[in-house]
Amino acid sequence: MTGTDQKNALCDTVSRSQTIPRPGLIKAIGQVTSGNMLEMYDFMVFGYYAGDIGRAFFPSGNAQAELMLSFATFGAGFLMRPLGALILGAYVDRLGRRRGLILTLTLMAIGTITLALTPGYDRIGIFAPLIVLCGRLIQGFSAGVEVGSSSVYLSEIATEKNRGFVVSFQSASIQLAVVVAAAVGFGLTSWLGTKAMSEWGWRLPLLFGCLIVPVLLFLRRNLQETAAFEAEKNHPDLREIFTTLHVNWRLGGIGVLTAIMSTVSFYVLTAYTPAYGTRILKLDRLDSLFVTLCVGLVNCLLVPAFGALSDRIGRRVLLKGATILAICSAYPLMHWLVAAPDMGRLMAAEIWLAVLYSAYNGAAIAWLTEIVPPRIRTTGFSFAYSLATCIGGFSPTVCTWLINITDNRAMPAIWLSVAAVCGLVAAFIARPYREMEVHGNS
């Protein structure tokens, strides 16, 4: 280890050992995760109403084609994530975690407003899908670093003993977004009816998200910078960040494999479930939304619990256990579901997969913050996670396509199993960054 590396590792260790009072820690967690929740809320609303958005902006007379185009637009935002991870991640590692959290929330609000207020294809023609696509690209650019910056912030205000628990609230906030989006959709559908929601009501959840943006911006403006960031007097410039990413490309690959399991599972269980239940299994929309709401509640409660467990027994145990169980159970479970689809079977299948997701993600997010180089922690985390999301974010599109070409409604389980294999491989070969430094110099 070079003198500079030793100094950086020492600063990282010292800053992590600094603790903040419990009330301050709780407040900071709320400030960080509230913005992250809104970002994922906007993403979930798009996924829940993908069919309605497809009819509004991509009318073709073919429901499957409209759904595919809508999900493709949904997925297009993920292609911008790696670019956002590099550009905005470098901004965060250079100028501060707090500034990055404010910037990403602002960009996400712009994308959401664009989608909520754009007239349909019947009013402005081809400009409608183009504007919606631009809004999704802006959202994707922002999201490229949102998960990374919020996870890194939580990691740096935590201690060695509670990092898994504290960082898990980043993932729990995403699940809370699932719950809120599903609850809003459930309530509006019950009130307005399915027909009104399909025609225009799907815009209301997006407008609701826009209205709370000023509150969240106020909360994030009052965040304090992390001690870990302030402990480093010389922050990396763009050239150093890219050089470090290049040198640690194998580590980045491990990060991508780790995050693929998280992203694929998340988007299959949440964004795809309403469309899968309604369009593929032909269940009632309210039933599908209610199942999604329950999945979000289970994840919201269990992810922090498994995060705390990972602090006690180690991250790797949970990562291996969850992926092995997913590989063994996903297809038999989905085959059982599609043999006689009803709300009860959909609920049972989704809840079991949600438990496995919670066990994996409770350890995975903190693990990702621990395996990347400290000086480029935000960029490294965000870039690996964004590349994985380019795969996982297209899960609704991939699942729909697999079902169409095989005529097998259980095919989403195969996609989940492939992701689980990636996570299992990563769990076997990954090590914390400082542990690799020690081994590399012993």
Give the low-confidence spans: 1-17, 435-442
Average pLDDT, to the nearest integer?
A: 84
Instruction: Tell me, briefly, the overall form.
Output: globular
Q: How many beta-strand segments?
A: 0
| Number of H/I helices | 23
Radius of gyration: 21 Å
User: What proportion strand?
Assistant: under 5%
H/E series: HHHHHHHHHHHHHHHHHHHHHHH
State the helical fraction.
Answer: over 70%
Q: Please state the structural category.
A: mainly alpha
Distance between the termini: 10 Å
Sheet having the most strands: none
Task: Walk me through what this model shows.
There is one protein chain. The protein is an all-alpha fold and about 450 residues long. Helix content is about 85%, strand content about 0%. It is built from 23 helices and no strands. Helix 9 crosses helix 10. The relative contact order is 0.15.
List the helices and strands and how they pair.
Layout: H1 3-17, H2 22-48, H3 50-57, H4 63-79, H5 81-95, H6 97-117, H7 121-124, H8 127-157, H9 163-192, H10 194-201, H11 203-211, H12 213-221, H13 227-231, H14 238-247, H15 249-271, H16 273-280, H17 285-313, H18 315-339, H19 343-371, H20 377-392, H21 395-406, H22 412-429, H23 433-440
Helix pairs in contact: 2-6, 2-8, 2-9, 2-12, 3-4, 4-8, 4-20, 4-21, 5-6, 5-8, 5-20, 6-8, 6-11, 6-12, 8-9, 8-20, 9-10, 9-17, 9-19, 15-19, 15-20, 15-22, 16-17, 17-18, 17-19, 18-19, 18-22
Which tags fit this structure?
disordered N terminus; 442 residues; single chain; mainly alpha; disordered C terminus; globular
